[in-house]
Amino acid sequence: MSLPQELFDMIIDEASRFPNKVERTRALIALALVSRAFRERAHDYLFTSVAFNNQKDTMDAIKRFLGLLEADPNSETIGVASRITSFECCIPLHATPTDPLVTVLKKLFIGNGRPASLSLQFICSRRWSSLAEDLAQELFEVCHRPQLASLSIYHLHDIPRNFLRNSFIKRLFLADVSVSDTQLPESLFAGMDDQGHSETGTLEFLHISVEKPILTLLTSSQQSGNSSAVFSHLKELRFFPPTSGEFDPGRNFDKILVGCKERLEILKISLGTETDPLTLLSFPKLPNLHTFDVTALTPSETSLSSLAMFLNQTECPNLHTIHLRFRISPRVLSLDDEEILPSLDGVGCKVLDDIFAQKKFNHVRKLTLRILCYHKSHYPALRTAGKCKTLILSRFPHIATCEHLTFLVDVTIF
User: What domain of life does the native source organism fall in (predicted)?
Assistant: First the structure.
């Protein structure tokens, strides 16, 4: 009497719930070796996500993995490669034309299976022109497969401006990248329209942490002048410009925000410059924004005041969650009991409390302040984080009376 497949699947599903990753993997491997009835289900868990993040032996690990893929004649269709929906890899500095990574990439995301994600991190910053020809070609190919919905790129510079044209990517993460004025040849895009590709993408999530303008990479199409067409489906934007330098973040931010203003729901940004944020960035009305997360990176004794005024310029009728992060000077937290209260008001507590007295903030349901303090030895001993929190909470008399609002303060002293 043979057991039903459902019973084998239940056993594998139970093993997949082990909280410890090492134990979970060992259990799934052991079960996969028992029989084919176990193997198919176990492989779904073992190979859904594949990551090569050890910089020292990445290529050796990829070679071994490629051997596993090539041992399976049906790898791309019903085998191991077809089960991969997440692939992460650190790319070594000296990737050669014989790099097994190229062959692995050729086998990924074939067909129209579940949405997949690809993360490529170059160990040292590289220029597109320095990539081996076969690696550059395969990067283009894998990034234009219909199954690929999420792409993360780290430390790659001078990317051709039309690299993402006709892709199916909905989630894009760019960190330390730049765009060149060069373009890939039109021959690479031949026939893509017939395969369901569209000229412009439909991004739903965008994370930008770059030092140079990258809009041309996002808008290189026939509709490049129409930001509304390019970003009209964007629901979450994370924008983290550099902390210093000549780069004007507004050059990227303003056009993106105008394009996504009707649908944007979550906005996370950092202000890493001493320039007044009110003059740095401008906001249109964001009717569907419900979560706003702002971090002030540059130390200032008026950080909270600047964040409060920045928040006050927004027009977000459905905003219900606000997170504000900033650094506070150890000088303030080292003052005696008589001096610290007016100093906290000067930091911005009073400004924020007054702003929340406006009707426009009545719909906010959660406000969180994350406060960091880096203690320097030449200042006297500070109060504990708990005592600082109690003092800071006392400087918000209006917010404390808002029954509909959950107000949280977290103080971390390093």
Answer: Eukaryota
Q: What is the pLDDT of residues 404-413, one digit of tens each?
A: 999 999 999 8
User: What pLDDT score was predicted for residue 248?
Assistant: 61
Neighbours of 158 (CB within 10 A): 16
Q: Are 380 and 401 in contact (CB under 8 A)?
A: no
Long-range contacts of 384-388 (CB under 8 A, 24+ apart): 384/413, 385/411, 385/412, 385/413, 386/411, 388/333, 388/413
Beta bridge partners of 290: none
- Find, among 222, 183, 180, 218, the residue nearest to 199 by Cα: 222
Residue 192 DSSP label: T
Reported as a single tens digit per residue, the pLDDT across 362-395 is 999 999 999 998 876 666 777 888 999 999 999 9
- How does pLDDT run across 134-188, given as a tens digit for each residue? 999 999 999 999 999 999 999 999 999 999 988 999 999 999 999 999 999 998 8
| Residue of 161, 144, 139 lying closest to 197 (CA atoms) | 144
Examine the pLDDT at 300 and tell me if it is beyond 60: yes
What H or E segment, with its residue span, contains residue 24?
helix 21-32
Strand ranges for 86-176 from DSSP E: 86-91, 116-127, 148-157, 171-175
Residue 87 phi, psi (nearest 5): -130, 120
Three-state SS for 238? strand
Query: Residue 229: helix, strand or coil by DSSP?
Result: helix
Count of CA atoms in the C-beta half-sphere (13 A) of 179: 19
Provide the percentage of residues in the chain whose pLDDT is more than 70. Answer: 87
Closest CA to 305 of 289, 281, 324: 324
The Cα-based distances of 125 to 21, 130, 181, 207, 293 in angstroms read: 31, 10, 19, 19, 29
